Amino acid sequence: MAPQIIALLGSPRPKGNTAKLMNEALRGIRDAGCEVETVHVPRLTFSPCKEILYCQEHAACAMNDDVTPYLEKFRDIDGLIVATPVMTMGIPGALKSFMDRFQVFFMAKYFRQEPLVAPEKKAHRRTLLLSIGGQNIEHDFDGLILSMKAFCDIIDCPYWDAVLQNNMDEVIDITTRPKVMKDAYEKGYRMGELIARDMAE
Ligand SMILES: Cc1cc2nc3c(=O)[nH]c(=O)nc-3n(C[C@H](O)[C@H](O)[C@H](O)COP(=O)(O)O)c2cc1C
Questions:
Q1: Is the CB of 87 under 6 A from ligand 1?
Q2: Which range marks the domain in which residue 54 is found?
Q3: pTM for this structure?
Q4: Cα 37 to Cα 26: distance, rounded to the nearest angstrom
Q5: Which of 88, 141, 176 to mutate to test the pocket of ligand 1 (most atoms within 8 A of CB)?
Q6: In whole angstroms, what is the distance from residue 13 CA to residue 91 CA?
Q7: Which of 11, 67, 73, 152 could serve as 18's disulfide partner, Cβ 3.0–4.6 Å?
Q8: If you take atom 17 of ligand 1, which residue's CA is the nearest one?
Q9: C-alpha closest to that of 47 among 71, 64, 72
Q10: CATH number of the domain that 174 lies in?
């Protein structure tokens, strides 16, 4: 079976620059033989984590909404792509709230020592981050990357690599940066290739 990838789009704009960059990475990972499900997170209907702590004792979330199926799917995926703009120096609210709901994985892994992802699955899983920021300032991606790395650890899908482009307020259109677009394609392709290789071993 082809490696199964989920791609999370954190930008509210389905045809914005983040989406354009993501589509290059998706072209790459599909060329490497993977199957991809894209999730436009701001379009989902869900509430942020309410800290009910049901997941302290159960391998599920007490809340039932559009996030629910992904809590199951994330146990089985072989790789993850997250494409997001920087907002207020971090991950935009909808995507961050989506990630927070994976506290189910945190509790299973760290509170009960019963991880939801099988060790053999974890061994080949990888995450690719694609991010853009409007500003040309130091530390623009720092907060976002810290949160991403924590999320990757929680869901046992290790942070593998990133494609980052700041200064978008001047660049305007990401397609005018062929090097960045190529980087996204190549990293998508490479991650797919590595996952497929490790799955075959
Ligand atoms: C609410 C909001 C907050 C933002 N905060 C930042 C920021 O902290 N740093 C930054 O570099 N750009 C920031 N931006 C700019 C976006 O990262 C930038 O416009 C990006 O290109 C949008 O991607 P899109 O084309 O996919 O919508 C912000 C944009 C919005 C709408």
A1: yes
A2: 4-200
A3: 0.98
A4: 10
A5: 88
A6: 15
A7: 11
A8: 133
A9: 64
A10: 3.40.50.360
CA 95 to centroid of ligand 1, rounded, Å: 14
State the closest ligand 1 atom to the C-alpha of 20, by its place in the atom list counted from 1: 26
The rounded distance, in Å, linking the Cα atoms of 179 and 166 is 14
From the CB of 9, is ligand 1 less than 6 Å away? no
Shortest-distance Cα residue to atom 1 of ligand 1: 87
DSSP reduced 3-state for 120: helix
Number of other residues whose CB lies within 10 A of the CB of residue 60: 15
Q: Which helix H or strand E contains 49, and what residues bound it?
A: none
Residue 166 region by backbone torsions, left for phi larger than 0, else alpha for psi between -120 and 50, else beta: beta
The whole-number mean pLDDT for each consecutive block of 10 residues of the chain, a chain of 201 residues, reads: 98 98 98 98 98 98 98 98 98 98 98 97 97 98 98 98 98 98 98 98 87
Residue 21 Cα to ligand 1 middle (Å): 15
Radius of gyration (C-alpha) of the chain in whole angstroms: 16
**What does the pLDDT read at residue 201?**
87
Q: How many domains does the chain have?
A: 1
Cα–Cα distance, 161 to 89 (Å, whole number):
19
pLDDT of residue 114: 98
